[in-house]
Amino acid sequence: MPEENDQLSVALKQVLNHQPSHSDHKLFAEDTTVQLALLIKEMGLYPYFIPISGQIGPRIIIDGKDTINLGSNNYMGLANHPEMIKAGCDAMRKYGTGCTGSRFLNGTLDIHNELEIKLAKFFQKEAALCFTTGMQTNLGVISGITRQGDHIISDEKNHASIIDGCRLAHADTRIYRHNNMDDLEKVLAGLPPQGNRWIISDSIFSMEGNVAQIPRIVELAERHKAHVIIDDAHGIGHFGKHGEGICGHLGLMDKIDILVGTFSKSFASIGGFCAAGRDIIQHLQHHARSLMFSASMPPAMAATANKALDIFYQDDEGRKRVLQNASFLRKGIESLGFRTVPQQIPTPIIPIIIGDVMKLAYFSKGLLENGVYTNPVIPPASSEAMIRMSVMATHRQKDLEDALIVLKKEGRKQGLIK
Ligand SMILES: Cc1ncc(COP(=O)(O)O)c(C=O)c1O
User: Fold this and answer.
1) By Cβ atoms counted within 10 A, which residue in 238, 381, 402, 408 is the most buried?
2) Residue 110 burial by Cβ neighbours in a 10 Å radius (0-12, 13-18, 19+)
3) pLDDT higher than threshold 60 for residue 155
4) Which CATH number is 54's domain given?
5) Is cis: bond before 20, omega within 30 of 0?
6) How far is CA 412 from CA 387, 390, 401, in A?
């Protein structure tokens, strides 16, 4: 294995130091990402676009093999819940397959409106607005709510959809160091007095799984007259009394001006939403371009998101299980001696820091060959090369125990643990 690592290391260096020649395709001659991907593919180590044949549950079928799934955002395990499947099928029968138009013009169904009323109530806000994806929600909310002369203050590790939303906005964007409240305060203190101020942060950072210091963000926002947008994509469903998410869990929902969420994780559907005061929602209905100029959520997705909310209200047991499973896996990882990320509030996302891209490639391949599916991630998606694992309410303890045996074996093989 070390020999193979050395070979890959040399090849990677060649790719990274590659000077484009005249024979290279002119458009992409400078780009090393695809070259790197092709090289890793050639070596049989490419870990992306792996097809799953069948339902996304705690165990999945990959390449015909039963595999433990530690690489999904289906936290509450609803993606194959019979009531969810029924709700989706019923809606498709009643409304058809798609809306063929945007919410604004010709793609609003009664079930979109019902879902928004329900979301507003669930998050104790005046109103809510559904988009077709979480990505489009951040693009539309951030660019739609801010104007030239406004200020966006964004955590450096926010999700790509927030980064792109800031890029689309006409406001000026300032970045503060990751979860660093002294730096946030410094940025706020240095802003000119004119213009609205919008602090924006993920609630749970999607790769490392650590939680933003929302109580401090809210406090600083009050002191510096700023508004707060929190993207709780990874907290809704399994945190809070009924699944209202991290802001509900912290008792701070009323301090958040705009709550953003996605239906692609615990809701096990597709779509995104924001919940806020009525004036903000009315403004976004007429300024969020990703809402106005893109077709609305298909009926089956609106119906399943709606059903997930009903299940969240009742499923205290599921919430308990997802956090218990997270705690079990995290303890196992720590006791094996893997490097992970400290979390003040433990979340269902558990990373193993690898640091070295080659080791990561071999480690994730070894895990998969031994029946454990995880998500390998590299910078800039994460701060270091790492394995991102996540648990579901529907994992049995045996699944996690079996996964830990494989993690131990492959971790030793790669010299990650003793
Ligand atoms: C924090 C955060 N926001 C937004 C999104 C985008 O959500 P969607 O998959 O619905 O586009 C994601 C998805 O990975 C996310 O992690």
Assistant:
1) 238
2) exposed
3) yes
4) 3.90.1150.10
5) no
6) 15, 21, 17
Q: How far is the CA of 231 from the centre of ligand 1 (A)?
A: 9
Token digits of residue 2: 């070390």
Residue 2 has pLDDT above 50, yes or no: no
CATH code for position 175: 3.40.640.10
Q: Are 368 and 282 within one domain?
A: no
State in Å: Cα 202 to ligand 1 middle.
10
Alpha helices in 288-346 (DSSP H): 289-292, 299-314, 316-336
Residue 135 Cα to ligand 1 midpoint, Å, equals 6
Q: Which atom of ligand 1 is nearest to the CA of 206?
A: 16
Q: How many CB atoms lie within 10 A of CB 248?
A: 22
* Residue whose CA lies nearest to ligand 1 atom number 16: 206
162, burial (CB in 10 Å: exposed 0-12, middle 13-18, buried 19+): buried
The answer on 397 and 337 residing in a single domain is: yes
- The per-residue pLDDT for range 210-238, each reduced to its tens digit, is 999 999 999 999 999 999 999 999 999 99
* pTM of structure: 0.94
Give the range of the structural domain holding residue 69, as residue numbers without chain letter.
47-76+317-413
